Amino acid sequence: MDRFIIEGGAKLHGKVKISGAKNSALPIIAAALLTDKKVVLENIPDLVDVRTMIELVKHLGSEVEFSHNTLKMHTPKIKRIDAPYDIVRKMRASYYVLGSLLARERRAKVSLPGGCAIGPRPIDMHIRGLETLGTNIEIKDGFVHAQTHFLKGQEVNLQGPKGTSVGATINVMLAATHAKGDTIISPAACEPEVVDVADFLNKIGCTISGHGTHTIVVKGKCTPASVHHRIIPDRIEAGTFAVAAAITRSKIELTHCQPEHLTGVLDKLEEIGSSIDKSNDKVVVKGIRNMHATNIFVAPYPGFPTDMQAQFMALLSVVPGTSTIKETIFENRFMQAVELMRMGANITIEGDTAVIKGIRKLSAAHLMASDLRASVALVLAGLVAKGQTTVSRIYHLDRGYERFEMKLRKLGARIERQCE
Ligand code: EPZ
């Protein structure tokens, strides 16, 4: 297992190119199963999760070429309808093939994804939505066994305990493309990645409207076409580098990003004290010495994203004053807190709220990553900690960040990867 060695104290400078969005690439690769025509996807990030999704669609019968961030995919025939446990356990987003296989083959057998470090991650809303469209679903031997005589367009209610669901919105949308009649999904998630999936589906011959709002309409019957599609930039990677500038009090430029997807994050950085300069596909972030505390309330898009709260916890650990973060989406997403406390951070967890009292300087430590965003928060803390920080189990980070340490090194950070 690899680890990072980070020498704290370096200032950052220069430009960093933001990669394509992981959370858009994964469902769009699954959505490409809907057509028997050739599909070319550009700006696909070269990540462990993307390679796992490629392994899955190849298992199902796709011919795939992936190089230099371009993925060519052709699925003339679906050869298998099962998503095996040893693939799904590596990446829960494998469940997106449920919607595609039901649409194209009217049956699917997908391993239950199980929970992960940040929470139980149930898929009951996916199942309820697919059942509403006329799917018979049985959970047996750790698998979702799904089949349908035909999918029928319906009104699908996706109200869950924490609001709606990004994954369930996408899964239902995929299945509904081949239903008889129209499907209305409400409340639908309106994250940019959901919009990107809908844009892709419209390009391959489906008819979707309302994406980006809380009500999506999917007209049944999709006339498959071949397509070129460019994946949107990764707003969470962009936000992560913006925090790297703020925490090291540096000035860096994010390129190839989409500033309008970053509003919740950039507004919060400005409130804390960073200066932000946005243009069409660039953002210049300048961290300043005298930042001040703030209160963060995680919310669905366009609110402050849950995928950015760990990074901000690292930042607020060294911002004078008392800050709070309220995590409203996942049950156990403060795993980075205990590791940051080992660096001297003053954090107390009160239920779904973290209270952070900023200190002047973190001290280096041996740290262990627990999940994707917690691991990147530890790296950000290591950039400013006094001494040499090691972050082990960075396979968590490799799932969602492309060439992360190389991008940081190019900005001037002193970080290297070591095989443990
Ligand atoms: C997507 O997860 C993202 N993953 C997550 O990013 C992101 O944090 C999340 O959306 C919220 O924005 C991908 O896109 C691959 P949800 P998803 O369904 O779809 C509950 C990252 O770091 N829920 O919107 O799984 C659920 O437990 C990852 O890149 C049910 O109860 O999130 C959670 O509390 C982490 N039943 C809430 O809803 C269900 O059937 C929102 O989850 C589904 C979800």
Secondary structure blueprint with pairings:
Blueprint: E1 2-7, E2 13-17, H1 22-31, E3 38-42, H2 48-60, E4 63-67, E5 70-74, E6 82-83, H3 85-88, H4 96-105, E7 107-111, H5 124-132, E8 136-140, E9 143-147, E10 155-157, H6 166-176, E11 183-186, H7 192-203, E12 207-209, E13 216-219, E14 227-230, H8 235-247, E15 251-255, H9 263-272, E16 275-278, E17 283-286, E18 295-297, H10 309-316, E19 322-326, H11 335-341, E20 346-350, E21 353-357, E22 366-368, H12 372-384, E23 388-392, H13 395-398, H14 404-410, E24 414-419
Parallel strand pairs: 2-15, 3-14, 6-7, 10-11, 18-19, 22-23
Antiparallel strand pairs: 1-23, 1-24, 3-5, 4-5, 7-9, 8-9, 11-13, 12-13, 15-17, 16-17, 19-21, 20-21
The structure holds ligand EPZ.
- The fraction of residues assigned to DSSP E strands is 25-35%
Q: Supply the CATH superfamily name of the largest domain.
A: Enolpyruvate transferase domain
- Low-pLDDT parts are none
What is the name of the CATH class of the largest domain?
Alpha Beta
Distance between the termini: 5 Å
What characterizes the major β-sheet?
A: 4 strands, mixed
Mean pLDDT: 96
The total beta strand count reads 24
Which CATH architecture of the largest domain?
Alpha-beta prism
Descriptive tags:
binds ligand EPZ, four-stranded mixed β-sheet, alpha/beta, 24 strands, 2 domains, globular, 420 residues, UDP-n-acetylglucosamine1-carboxyvinyl-transferase, Chain
